[in-house]
Design goal:
14-stranded mixed sheet; 30 strands; single chain; elongated; 7-stranded mixed sheet
């Protein structure tokens, strides 16, 4: 038997709300979600049901196929362990609200109500700004950061709510409805029971959804903090034109594209960037979508978690979080996921990242975790200020001023409303230019070719997921199959293949003598360069794959540290202007030829950078490649570059 659904008004709505104000209400949730397609917030939904603790997502779906929302899952960050990733296991449970009643309240049913009083004590950050700045400085100077790794590092703010009861949480939710704007989800979840947990938040980050048989994700990155005098068009334009901010968003979009391409058929599309305005700040975000090919539970399981709350590349970011954060995250960085079916019986899914959220235990002890996305060019002072601003939206639900940091009780930034800085005129024009600068392959939603070439074998060199690259290969050339370098037969499989072979990218120094992984990859690359027959299909490489092939084919190639701080660069590749994404820590240089090339009958033509030393690309009849990532949303003409490598 599925949930009972009501649109309630008048006294019916009052009776529904009164059930939330008792001393021991049943498990419930209050949600105000952004409408599908981003067209403003929806009504307030009230969910009642039974709360269960389950072991895995396999047990988290709705109990039946009735129309409407059937289950609300609370996924803690520790679920990354299901994917073999390290985390501090704090034993936070995976909970599911089995929905038995679904009520939709009219606008104003809560906001017009006089709420319960809220008292708080001992509020403040558990570490001071100086501590967080040291953490940022240490990570920004690391080899991982210089190699393009971005990580969201958190800090915690705590408080006590004397006499806390669920009615207080309802009041916090009510205040968020009126004081915070632009949230993807504004929510309250109360687990019920003897030792209940209560989550109250306003998260800007929608994660993965299934809408009208399309899977949708909303990568978000970049933060403009409103100054005390309110936002100004000139300052907003400077923020939107900041290369660091645009590259951080593009990096997040690339990471989410990798996830989405595994869950969608041909025709994945990138829209945006758009602005998501909040009460104290705004973010830039994109919307990516494609035809759904997986169930809601599989989609949710394979999409854990939002890169915005973790970083990218995802696996490396999880390792960095385990190193730099000393305690578990609880539900912070996890997901709330609402699963059910529409009136046609098709599965529906909507989920939001658990950020900007108060986690309150049964004794009224509250924790608010906030973080900033940190990379090689991060300013420690700016990132610390960003965390204070992000905390302000939730903390002003308790008091008119955010609590001070622990060491010197520094006051956070004053929060002012956005004012009249709408996305039109020069702001709109700049967003349009940023959209036009993205890869047309992704912004136009390219489908599979009508004329398909030979099957491509893609070598996965480890450390990164090549799914987005494979998606592009399938669209521009034809069917593709991934071969992992750990496979004992990988070298033989690639050597025997008569069709194109593509070596994907990944982290690491290709000539590292102490890396068993690189030793295997060098052996495979040398064999492919040596044995590829003339006149046959090419062997190509991108990023690390290109470096491995170049070291095997060019005796004068040398590995150097990558210079420059930007990920996106304007280069010429054999006379073709390209804005390209360079993500590897290392680069190659090529000097005057001293020894004979490995392929004397087919020496590849070389493309060098402006300094005439850095090797950007090579192109021979049988061996070719590019240093950059053609599959990145930052690389213009990437599909054409990849097509030329494979034919």
């Amino acid at each position: 038997m599925g949930p009972t659904h009501f649109d309630v008004t008048g006294m019916s709505g009052v009776r529904v709300l009164e059930r939330l104000y008792g001393t021991a209400p049943p498990p419930f949730a209050l949600l105000r979600r952004q409408r599908a397609g981003g067209h403003g917030p929806g009504p307030v939904e009230v969910l009642f049901g039974e709360m269960e603790t389950v072991r895995s997502l396999d047990e988290a779906g709705p109990a039946d196929a009735s129309p409407g929302p059937g289950a609300l899952a609370l996924l803690p960050f520790r679920q990354v362990a299901e994917h073999g990733l390290r985390c501090h296991d704090d034993h936070t449970p995976l909970r599911v609200l089995r929905i038995s009643e679904h009520h939709v309240l009219p606008e104003g049913a809560l906001t017009r109500r006089l709420g319960a009083p809220v008292r708080w004590q001992d509020a403040g950050f558990t570490t001071d700004d100086a501590h967080y700045e040291r953490l940022v400085r240490e990570f920004a100077a690391s080899d991982a950061a210089r190699g393009g790794l971005n990580v969201l590092l958190r800090r915690d703010c705590t408080a006590r709510l004397p006499g806390f009861r669920p009615a207080v949480a309802v009041e916090l939710f009510r205040r968020l409805l009126t004081t915070e704007s632009g949230a993807y989800w504004t929510f309250l979840v109360h687990t019920g029971g003897e030792r209940p947990t209560t989550l109250v938040g306003a998260t800007p980050q929608g994660h993965v959804a299934i809408e009208d048989r399309r899977v949708v994700m909303n990568p978000l990155c970049g933060t403009y903090r409103y100054p005390p005098h309110g936002p100004r068009t000139g300052e907003l334009l400077a923020f939107l034109a900041d290369r660091k901010e645009s590259e951080e968003l593009a990096t997040t979009v690339d990471a989410e594209l990798t996830v989405l391409c595994a869950l969608a058929g041909p025709g994945v599309r990138v829209e945006g960037p758009f602005l998501r305005r909040m009460a104290h700040l705004l973010h830039t975000q994109c919307r990516i979508s494609g035809p759904s090919v997986a169930s809601a539970r599989e989609t949710l399981s394979r999409a854990l978690f939002a890169s915005t709350a973790v970083g990218s590349p995802f696996a490396e970011a999880c390792r960095a979080i385990h190193r730099y954060e000393t305690t578990g995250r609880g539900y912070y960085g996890g997901l709330l996921a609402l699963m059910g079916r529409d009136d046609r019986g098709d599965e529906e899914l909507d989920s939001a990242a658990v950020i900007r959220t108060l986690d309150i235990d049964h004794l009224g002890r509250a924790r608010l975790s906030v973080g900033a996305t940190v990379g090689s060019r991060s300013s420690p002072e700016s990132e610390a200020a960003e965390t204070r601003t992000k905390a302000a939206a939730l903390l002003t639900a308790l008091t008119t001023q955010p609590p001070p940091a622990a060491s010197h009780r520094r006051r956070g930034p004053a929060g002012t409303a956005p004012g009249g800085t709408d996305a039109h005129g020069p702001v709109h024009d700049l967003l349009v230019r940023r959209h036009a600068a993205l890869s047309s392959f992704w912004t136009k939603g390219m489908s599979a070719p009508t004329v398909r070439g030979d099957r491509v074998l893609v070598l996965d060199p480890g450390g990164e997921d090549p799914t987005a690259l494979v998606h592009m290969v399938t669209s521009v050339h034809g069917p593709a199959e991934v071969v992992r370098y750990e496979d004992p037969d990988a070298g033989d499989t690639l050597s025997r293949h008569r069709g194109p072979v593509l070596l994907a990218s990944g982290p690491g120094r290709p000539d590292d003598p102490g890396s068993p992984r690189m030793a295997v990859l060098r052996q495979i690359s040398a064999s492919l360069v040596r044995e590829r027959p003339p006149g046959g299909a090419p062997v190509a490489g991108v990023g690390l794959g290109f470096q491995l092939l170049a070291l095997a084919a060019l005796p004068d190639a040398r590995v150097t540290a990558r210079t420059g701080t930007g990920l996106g660069r304007d280069v010429e590749v054999f006379g073709r202007p390209v804005t390209a994404a360079f993500r590897n820590t290392y680069a190659l240089t090529s000097g005057p030829a001293g020894a004979a090339p490995a392929r004397r009958h087919d020496p590849p033509a070389l493309c060098l950078g402006p300094d005439r030393r850095e090797l950007l690309a090579m192109h021979g009849a049988a061996v070719r490649g590019v240093q950059f990532r053609p599959e990145s949303v930052m690389t213009t003409g990437g599909a054409d570059v990849l097509r030329s490598l494979l034919r």
